Amino acid sequence: MNKLDNFKAGFIKENPVFALYLGLCSVLAISTTLNNAVGMGVAVIIVLTVSNVIISAIRKVTPSEIRIPVYIVVIATLVKIVEMLIQAYATDLYGTLGIFIPLIVVNCIILGRAEAFASKNNMLDSLIDGIGMGLGYTFGLIILSAIRQILATGILNFSNPFTSEMMFEVRLIPADYVISLFSTPAGAFLTFAMIAGALEAYKSKASKKVKEVK
Amino acid sequence: MFKKALHFTVFLALLSGLAGGALAYVNSITAPIINENAIAAEKVNLVKLFPGTSEFAPLEITNDETGFIQSAYTAKDAGIAYKVQVMGYANPIVFMVGISNDGKIVGLEILDLRDTAGIGTRVEDPEFKDNVVGKTTTDPLAALSGATVTSGAVIRGINAAKAHFNDSKGIDGGGSDDPVTPPLAFGDPVGIFSNATASAPAEILEETTDGDVITYLVASKGYAVLEGGYEGAKPNVFKIVINTAEKKVVSMELVEFNDTTGLGDKIDHEDFWAQFEGLATDDDSIEIDVVSGATVTAISAARALRGAIGE
């Protein structure tokens, strides 16, 4: 697998959210606004990339019998650091993400990539994999959040997480026509299922094409 | 085997040590900022309690036995603001109370209140705040009649803050721990010989004469019989003492109560009985004030008296 393929895999074909169905707990819970999605996505990218690099760096000295506790220690430490940084520098984001920041520890994407990729590949590849998978997660989260936010509130906006200053805000649906169901967990499942279904349809169509060409 | 276990232990211990070190380092950088953010977030409320003060410093609470006090801040040269959480009627209530350095409650800010709208939420009304603000830390506080659970919880929280304040300032007597009984809220007056008392005549159960003083036991239909109407509903029984020579009511009390607990039994309050003492039995214009929220039971008391005088 070359480095570009490795990077691109996380977006569509192996998108951790919509194709692998990993880390759904936090995805379904916090995907109500674009701000949450970007904040959570960046936190996951940082944790995933750094943990991939560290785990890859110590893969040769880590005894395989205790590799899982080792991964957990590394991931938990990184998550706690990210949590403290968010709490200190992006208080509003900390308030809205709340419990889901510490829960990144048990986000299976991170442990999954540590086990499936970083423990078997070199540091550079692990770095690329971390960024790619992290971006794929963020990408999935942003799509889900944007759809839910627009349908539930009619507004799409984004504010600077460090200063709480509004960067842009557009009303796409008049206030009388919003569907508040989409801000609830049920709305999260509905939106998620439709996107996952659409992606599946796209993938099977694409693979059919490949077969016909052959 | 043992060597392997030792290897694992050392490896994990080393890794955990490194992780701990990294966490401690980041914590040392972020902790002061997080602390400052927390104060900045609280400051909006702190300034409401101590207008004109801008310097606030967190105060560590160590000697709070109640566990109600969440955090406290000293306002420079002004007083102490306490953030308190107590359990209300249905949900926790979070509020801030400010106590000035001279021992006066200067402000009360309710931050989180999810009790019954229109009842528990009355602690946010000026009626309750006026009752609290301006009191000293040694004054007892009265609960709100009709919202005793919520207001009582808030008062217990304030008392925790008062106790801590008095402790730290060496003031004696932090006021009673429990809210004092609210004063009775009286409703409209009702005449003893009015139409309201004519509809369901009382029944005299017992009559004891001792010289000029006659003691009656009177059964009078209350809420349970008149409005409840369920099977087995019983009237209330009152003991009425009348001096026939002076033609005056000596005393009146409730012997048996059969109406709704928590509503009708409000009449069993010294302020209510005090109205009856000394009423002239030969005057048909005498009246008493009913108790707000216990009107029907109060009228049953008036009927009982009518029954006794009518004898």
Describe the overall structure:
The complex is a heterodimer of chains A (214) and B (311). Chain A has 214 residues and is mainly alpha-helical. Chain A has one domain (3-208). Chain A has eight helices and two strands; from the N terminus they run H-H-H-H-H-H-H-E-E-H. Chain A has helices at residues 3-8, 24-30, 34-57, 67-89, 91-97, 108-118, 123-153, 185-213; strands spanning 155-159, 166-171. Chain A has a two-stranded antiparallel sheet with strand order 1-2. The longest helix of chain A has 31 residues, at 123-153. Chain B has 311 residues and is of the alpha+beta class. The model of chain B has no long low-confidence stretch (mean pLDDT 84). Chain B contains seven helices and eleven strands. Chain B has two domains: 56-169, no CATH class; 186-310, no CATH class. Chain B has helices spanning 2-49, 126-132, 148-169, 195-198, 223-228, 270-274, 295-310; strands at 56-59, 69-75, 79-87, 92-100, 105-112, 186-191, 203-210, 213-220, 236-243, 248-256, 287-291. In chain B, a hairpin with a 4-residue loop joins strand 3 (79-87) and strand 4. In chain B, the strands form three sheets. In chain B, strands 1-2-3-4-5 form a five-stranded antiparallel sheet, sandwiched between helices. Chain A binds chain B through residues 61-63, 65-66, 69-70, 73-74, 76-77, 80-81, 84-85, 87-89, 91, and chain B through 4, 7-8, 11-12, 15-16, 19, 22-23, 26-27, 29-31, 33-34, 37, 41.
